[in-house]
Amino acid sequence: MDRVVLKWPVPVDDHTHKIGGGSVIHVDCQDPHDPSHVMVWTVEQREGPVPQRTVQVFGTGQPLPFNAEHLGSAMALGGRLVWHVFQLLNPTHDDERE
Prior knowledge:
Elements: E1 3-11, E2 17-20, E3 23-28, E4 37-45, E5 52-59, E6 68-76, E7 81-88
Antiparallel strand pairs: 1-4, 2-5, 3-4, 5-7, 6-7
């Protein structure tokens, strides 16, 4: 079965978001001058539904929930901001936002 790399924009907005559930191969700010989004690249199967995971972006020094697993970090604005993307394991309904 074929696989494909997909890119998922994750807003930096203190809310959870859905992205692909495949292997994370890269996390970065695609536009280093725009700190409002972090991009996550995953490897997904080409056929069938794409499994999803719930993620949220946290800044350095921000409190993290206990159910958060680190996926990757990215620098923006020349390193003045560092964003950390975490998967929320077993999120509650209140944690999830489409």
